[in-house]
Design a protein that fits this description.
The chain has 217 residues and is mostly helical. It contains 13 helices and no strands.
């Protein structure tokens, strides 16, 4: 099968019905693919999932919830040893606990609250934080904050390579994915049957890529 640009890839993936059907009342957070999207939980998950199976991340998130510490303020002041203990089932848990706590402290230092962080943070600030690279930063921007940002990852690279695209850099992959959807936005809306917001479109497109790639293993 020939994929000429990202709209064609979206069309192909949408035909596979990889995600629950999206209705025009798309405000439901479940439509965003990432569990509990548009919440601080996504910020934590984006750090914990690095080199770790999502199932292990879910266990850690549930522990944080049960201890009632899944907030910026609570994680910032929690003794580091306690946080490490709560994350012990996650790979590199000591390093991730320290980075997560530092991130929370920096959010409070620079933005005063998580709400202000959501309103004002930019990609450059996120990339300055230890342990946050392109993929994690963009996942936070899109899935936690609802920004119009497309996430690319290893699944994207492998899938595009299978279709004959040698896009070596993260930026090249992201641009390829974004450009074809923006340039064909009228066709995208026709495909969905309503004017789908770009932030949600990007979220679901990335989710489809991941789910399709997992299913091919």
């Amino acid at each position: 099968m020939e994929i000429t640009e990202s709209f064609a890839l979206l069309e192909f993936l949408k035909s596979k019905e990889l995600l629950p059907k999206l209705e025009s009342h798309y405000e439901d957070k479940r439509h965003w693919w990432w569990p509990n999207a548009l919440s601080f939980e996504v910020v934590v998950g984006a750090i914990l999932v690095q080199n770790t199976r999502w199932e292990q991340v879910e266990i850690a998130l549930n522990v944080l919830k049960s201890k009632e510490v899944l907030s910026v303020e609570s994680l910032a002041k929690l003794p580091l040893e306690n946080l490490q203990e709560m994350l012990k089932n996650v790979g590199f848990f000591r390093q991730k606990a320290k980075r997560l706590q530092n991130l929370c402290c920096n959010i409070l230092r620079d933005f005063k609250s998580y709400a202000c962080f959501c309103e004002s943070v930019d990609r450059e600030w996120l990339l300055e934080q230890k342990g946050i690279g392109f993929e994690s930063a963009d996942a936070i921007l899109n899935y936690a904050l609802g920004r119009e940002v497309m996430v690319a990852d290893t699944y994207t690279y492998r899938l595009l390579k299978g279709f004959g695209y040698e896009l070596e850099s993260y930026e090249a992959m992201q641009e390829w994915l974004t450009q074809g959807l923006v340039e064909n936005y009228a066709k995208v809306c026709a495909l969905y049957g309503f004017r789908i917001p770009l932030n949600l479109l990007f979220a679901r497109f990335h989710g489809k890529i991941v789910e399709y790639s997992k299913g091919r293993k």
